[in-house]
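Note to self: keep these together.
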Amino acid sequence: DLLAEGSLSKESICSYLIQDHRFLDSFVVLLASMIAKAPTLQDRLPGCQFLALITGKENTYFERSFEALGVTELQRKDTPNSKPTEGFIALMRSVADSGDYAQMLCVLCVAEWSYLSWADRVKALRSESKPFYLMEWIDLHCGEGFESVVEYLRSLLDSARPNLSDAEVAACHVTFQRAVDLEEAFFDHALQAHANATQ
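Structure:
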């Protein structure tokens, strides 16, 4: 909520965006891998449209934000991954490499559903007087368009369920919970970075 309120320090928002941008490459690999495994063209098309958004508008948002915040290429390169960032990248790569359609959907659902839940809660705090790199981050993760993405991913996972064995369902539960734990750790790390920056 600090981001939506505009009360995050510059150091904190820079750190947060650097870490979040680190997900982009692995997320693209994961989403593309899921699209390739989807059973029909009808199932693939919304994913392709979302992939275009991620590699277009969202990536451009990061580049514009880094420029506005004065984040240099060297700073982006030299900032180490946090443990949650490293963990989530490893999870995305692992499920993408596995070729397991349901497991890929588990991670994608957690990644996007968690952001929708956050943005939907804080969108009332939007204000045009606040920096674009704060407000556009909310805009990217709420509204009918993004809601349809989350519903699309959830519906694919629901549709995959009848074809899974009990062991595969259990494995999906583990993967889903692992993704939730890493998302929570990622945001906890961001909050701790803010606390450290404002001491």
